[in-house]
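Sample log: site-specific DNA-methyltransferase (adenine-specific).
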Amino acid sequence: MDPAQRRQLGAHYTGEADVLNLLRALVLDELEAELGRLAQLHEPARRQGLAELHARLAALRLLDPACGCGDFLLVAYRELRRLELEIIRSLADPHPYAVSIEQCYGIEIQAAPAEATRASLAALEQQLDREHAELLGSPLPARATPTTPTIRCANALRLDWADLLPAAACSHVIGNPPFIGKQARTGAQVDDMQIVFAAARGTSALDYACAWFKKAADYVAGTEVEVAFVSTNSITQGEQPGLLWPLLDRDGATTITFAHRSFAWRGQANVHVVIIGFAARARRPRRIYEVGDVRVVESINPYLVAGPHETLAKRRDPLDPHTPRASFGNMPNDGGHLLLSEAERLELIHADPRAAAFIRPFISARQYLAGQPRWCLWLIDASQAQLQSCPAIMRRVAQVHAHRRASTRPATRKLAATPSNFGEIRQPTSDYVLIPRHPSARRPRVPLGYFSPDHIIADSCIAIAGASKYHFGVLSSTMHDAWLRQIGGRIKSDLRYSIELVYNNFPWPPAPSPDHRAAIERRAADLLELRQAHQLMSLAALYTPATMPAALAHAHRELDAAVDQAYGVDTSMSSSERVALLFALRR
């Protein structure tokens, strides 16, 4: 497929390993366990049980509503035939084939892939018939009639799935809905989502794949049909869980039955994905799969951690009323004329030494991480007489005035009345924690900063004014990092730090003792001192795994231990267990 067309349709091939991960959790592990249990029985219970299991396999009906070229249906059919072969071998008689491609149903928007799915399934059935006959040593009775899968070429979001396969006859809905983010949707795709979600508020912020979740939830409502989709992990982060799941769970019945937490996808798209199983009537224990491990839990929430089925809403204030508030930094809106490089700072001071009194360090996210000095003219307290006495500064102020007057935005033109000031001023008046708004997800830790108020913070960062080293320590810990990575969402490959979702919803240590607070402050101070000792290295280099000094890594571990003690937990907790704990602390 043409790459541009593939991106527009979100059509990406799902590798067999990922398909099998979905199918095993959804149905194969249960069938194989039942086969193993039956093998331990004595006759005639064993034989009767195998015959019943064979009939159960033949009764399964699988629907892939975004089937592409049929990779999910092909692997599922092959695995059902494998189980059937084991049953026939165990029965040791010429038991006829019961599993067929007639059990496979699919919907595909393009004609060529839909036809490829039909042809591939037919070819696979013929191939497996021959191979299994050879393995059994003799041909089995021929199929009574030719078999064909039911593959419909249609827009799955505008088709009533029950017209293809009534939900009462379906066993499982499987697949990989298109990977298309909210910014990449076409007008027709936006219309698709409006139809599916009945123009519900907030759904414009959802990924295109979410429409398949909604269609599937409506399709299986009131049944025991279980759904399992591969999806980008974005639907489990940021604001999307809080928008999507209340629409899927209006009657409180939709339950997440299993989840493979975020992992690097082995397909053609450079993304991380999750596998989510859900049903209206859950009949099995809930399971969370992560890095080769599986845990049985009481319930799974939409962030794919253990806990009640709840989502976070944006909050205007921190969860703990005693926690300092966060805000965005200052926005210059100056055309660059109030900002100075190191060379421009020196040139300005050389032209007029009096200008030095109005020059402050300027901290943007990029400059902060790269360690490149940058400065700004901070004239908020300068009198008109002081400004008039410094022509070099006045020339820059005049350039700001001209830049704002030339803007097409009324709000910017209005700012021309105060050209000596930043466009938006939110500068802390006390020490503050600095958090980059879009830190890299590739670093093992997000390096936060701690500054005095004479450092002017840019709007590419978040400031927590009045924060102590205790607050800096908790926010620099693995506990907060796990919360950020799960709740914060993504912008391209970077994390998205949201004040209203991440910071204001973050549960701080409950009632930490003075000793706990002192230990965290001490470890936080040690961490800042170590950074200062390595000030010739940028933070970007300091927090790259290959170049991170051992002493700095040790300091972070010591800080983590102090924070974990305040939470009353063991440092060996996994990231998902930490998020589950934090959700529990909210209740």
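Observation: DSSP finds 21 helices and 19 strands in the chain.
Observation: The two ends are 49 Å apart (CA to CA).
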